[in-house]
Write a structure and sequence with these properties.
Strand content: 35-45%
Order of helices and strands: HEEEEEHEHEEEEEE
Radius of gyration: 15 Å
Oligomer: single chain
Number of strands: 12
Number of helices: 3
Amino acid sequence: MDADSFRAVLGRFASGVTVVTAHAPDGHDQGMTVTSFCSLSLEPPLVLVCIDHGAAMHDNLVAAQHFAVNILSSTQEPLSRRFSDPDPDRFEGIGFTRGRTGVPLLDDALAHMECRRHADYPGGDHTIIVGEVLYASVRQDRPLLYYRSGYAQLER
């Protein structure tokens, strides 16, 4: 299957939008928009994120002991766009707090999950990172969705 056809088929699958954040070994906060995210297990509570080998955050995320998955709300499209741009200082002027593990938790996210890196596996041009969810929080709002290479909203 060629890459364009595969991308077109996968584009028909609506997904939530997340920003994965971590505290890099050099002391800087890092984050990137990730749509390749899903739950893996209830017992223990595991999630997975898939990170392209070419992503600026890849090596630090693979090495990080902890990371957070911030599930974005429908009002956070600008935040998703910002964390998908190559800007090295994505946190400048962005509201966030520190979670219990020290990772950045973005203000007004629909949900936060603080994870301990459990394992990682090769997956083609990506690394599959499995995290054990240690702490989580939720709030009521609508999710930000990604569908057919664009942002979408749930209809009420």
